[in-house]
Design goal:
The structure is a single chain. With 163 residues, this protein is mainly alpha-helical. The chain has one domain (5-161). Helix content is 72%, strand content 0%. The protein contains six helices and no strands. The chain has helices spanning 5-29, 34-51, 54-76, 82-91, 100-122, 144-161. The longest helix is centred in the first third of the chain and has 25 residues, at 5-29. The chain starts with a helix and ends with a helix. 33% of the residues are buried. Keywords: Membrane, Transmembrane, Transmembrane helix.
Length: 163
């Protein structure tokens, strides 16, 4: 992995609770709150100054812009929710561009695993734990489950396998 183990270790404790909340919130309400997206951005803006060299820190804002533009286009085409697009854009600066292939493979595996797990839970007794969750009855998949999981897994893997 191209992400440094140090930067992954510095980011992970701040980002992990947000990733868990994004997954929970998207399953419960089928939405990712804007405040979480803003907090994720602020975490990068503040902690990134410590975790990254300054030139890399500045370049990572370009990741945010590129992913936001792509997310807006995907949202306009109906392929992605607005909250998902905003969360992906706020998460983009945490990703080292050299890990993009790994990230796409991790995201694909995460989508498949999360989709299967969600559908199994939807049709099992686990549904009785949270019967009011909107994702049980909505035909759309709560992508926050995969997006949050992917960012958390990427940073966790970066702690162990980062350079």
């Amino acid at each position: 992995m191209d992400i440094s183990a140090f930067s992954a270790l510095v980011f992970l404790p701040f980002v992990l609770p947000l990733c868990v909340y994004v997954a929970f919130s998207d399953m419960r309400d089928m939405r990712i709150p804007n405040v979480i997206v803003v907090i994720l951005f602020v975490i990068f803006a503040v902690v990134g100054l410590i975790a990254l060299p300054f030139d890399a820190y500045l370049w990572r804002y370009l990741h945010l812009v590129v992913v936001l533009v792509a997310g807006i286009a995907l949202n306009a085409g109906g392929a992605m929710g607005a909250g998902d697009a905003k969360f992906a854009a706020a998460a983009a600066p945490f990703i080292h561009v050299g890990d993009l292939r790994l990230l796409m493979a991790l995201f694909a595996a995460n989508i498949l695993a999360a989709f299967v797990a969600h559908r199994i839970a939807k049709h099992s007794a686990l549904r009785t734990i949270a019967p009011h969750w909107k994702s049980w009855t909505n035909p759309k998949f709560p992508m926050g489950l995969s997006l949050g999981g992917t960012l958390a897994l990427y940073l966790a893997l970066g702690v162990w396998f980062g350079r």
